Write the structure tokens for this entry.
Amino acid sequence: MSPSDNGTQVLVVLTGADAHDARIVFDALGTAFAPAGPEEGRAAAEDDKAGASLLRSALYEAGEQTGHPQVAAPLRTVVNVTLQGDYGAVDRVSEILADAFRLEEVGEAPGDQEKEVELRLHPHDS
């Protein structure tokens, strides 16, 4: 299912995140939104042989916020995030990430029905 199939779902794709940082980001989103995919929001994860992340993705139901983001630990590295979905839903997820992490907006690709936003999440000490 793509995010456009349901106007409140947002696909969250992480690149540059190891398992530790990905868990922190997904757990923070999971405290604010219901997962819309398998395994509590973790729809896909691919690691290289050294354990470095190539791609991690999750689908969240961002129609209604279910709680406030809770961050269990600081990020260790910069995490690149791509959000894709309905304009309002992507904005809600972006706001939650900005509340939970030090966020840098990198770019946006608006479409007719949905948009894609590129973000970077930074460790608080960098």
Observations:
- The beta strands are 9-15, 34-35, 44-47, 53-61, 79-86, 102-110, 114-122.
